[in-house]
Amino acid sequence: MKPSLQVRLSQHLALTPQLQQSIRLLQLSTLELHQEVEQMLEQNPFLEADEDSGGGPEAVTVEGGTAAASEREDWSPAADAPADAPAEAAPAGEGEAAGVDQLDFDSADASSDWDHGGDEYDSLSDVGGARNGAPDDEDSDWSERSSVAESLPDHLRGQLRGMRLAPEDQLLVEALIDSLTEDGYLADPLEEIAERLAVGLELGESLGRDAAPGEVTAVDIDQAELPEAPTPEEAQAAAELREELLDRLRCALGWLQNLEPCGVGARDLGECLVLQLREHDATEARRVAILICQGHLELLARRDMKKLVAATGADEDDIRDAQSLIVTLEPKPGRRFARAEANIVVPDVIVQKAGRGWRVVLNPDVMPKLRINDMYAQALRQHRGQRGADEAGSGATLSARLQEARWFVKNILQRFDTIQRVSQAIVERQKGFFTHGEIAMKPLVLREIADELGLHESTISRVTTAKYMATPFGTFELKYFFGSSLNTEAGGNASSTAVRALIKQFVAAEDVRKPLSDSQLSTMLEEQGIQVARRTVAKYREALKIAPANLRKAI
């Protein structure tokens, strides 16, 4: 074939670096965003944390949306929208040409008008007073305010220091503490722990030094030179050592199980409950409860009254009293020592009452405080103003880093602005929820919010993933407010969330001696005008973590 040149005209979506960064920041959670900010602060010298929100001579303070205790009655949705925020959306279908979802970010390229009156965007802080009526609060960083709770091992070691045990016994108790799970259970059998400790002692002797249990490391194991075939005398001595360690570990386990919280150090659920029952007054109910926990918990879970009576020799009234006592116990003694930070959900937006309606404000605790370093920016401008400066060298590289810092600040502001717009649209659609709770939730899909804001469904999906809203009824993920619709006899639609709320109410009000089956729940919903099949009711019940009727029945 003869080579030739051809000219072709085609259209495709070019993802600029700024657009790619905007997409990535939008789908990040709050924790991931703060990690991204920390990484950018380390990499880019032009970007710095705005600790005092003071701003330099050329710094522009962003009026970012925040939330505070003060509420202004003159608030209006128009006041929350940036005056120069563009509302253009990318043409549908262009996203597929670039191998991504259809994109419709405001300010999709680097030349957008997000400069707020100039070509330099120098500061992003969480002041936001003019926007949401929220004053500055330098101490509002949730990550700094979260206190470090005492862990379960530290709590146990603190009690252990006051027991005045022999050093060897204290080391054995500490070895057991190291084997506890987060729930407070002993993870390994005593035989395995004794085996490990014996191996550690033998290795310590082979290294020619005294080694306490747990002090032998992997490096010591590599350096140790143990005989491949021990003599009968050595094997006998090793067996006696393991037996002695096992006996002392049993005593150490008794000391551990006497520590607070009660039930810690148990090897299974039955032992944990028995340890707690022994702290109660001696009654017939306690005696029966101990018998049940020692070997008949499965029968109790199945509500098998006949077999429980035969196994324990107690009458039905005593078994019911024992059940009432058992349900008051703590199955996970270490629960209250779990890391609180792991369970904390920091909302991105907060819903506040505003007159007869509701308004959405951004949470100031999640707003990063960033600005451009004035000294570096001025030095770069002076460098560019000098004649003969090598623009193709270091000056161009520094200019690119400065522009990168400004893009980063703009994209963060755009991220929070998009979250606030979407959240406000959700609140407007779900006003009944904020007044009456989840039972008043309406059906809602991503397309409705996307059409209202002129965005694409993929953008709404990114915004509502791992973003949380604080409401009068608790903190929920934004996706919680979206739900499918179910037909009603009146010809309308009911939200699946509202149906689940009704199921929860029905189960809460049922007779525990005759719990409602899935078929009965379906019939009750039909009486309310909502057509739901039995299988759908079972699916919703399982999603609510409600046990079947046979397991909800009281014995």
From TrEMBL:
**NCBIfam families per the record?**
PRK12469.1, rpoN_sigma
Q: What is this protein called?
A: RNA polymerase sigma-54 factor
Low complexity bias spans: 77-102
State the Gene3D superfamilies in the record: Homeodomain-like (1.10.10.60), RNA polymerase sigma-54 factor, core-binding domain (1.10.10.1330)
Q: What UniProt keywords are attached to this protein's entry?
A: DNA-binding, DNA-directed RNA polymerase, Nucleotidyltransferase, Sigma factor, Transcription, Transcription regulation, Transferase
Record domain RNA polymerase sigma factor 54 core-binding: where: 144-198, 238-376
- Function in brief: Sigma factors are initiation factors that promote the attachment of RNA polymerase to specific initiation sites and are then released.
Residues forming the RNA polymerase sigma factor 54 DNA-binding domain are 398-553
Its family remark reads: Belongs to the sigma-54 factor family.
Species whose genome carries this gene: Sphaerotilus uruguayifluvii
* Stretches for region Disordered: 47-154
Q: Which InterPro entries match?
A: RNA_pol_sigma_54, RNA_pol_sigma_54_core-bd, RNA_pol_sigma_54_DNA-bd, RpoN_core-bd_sf
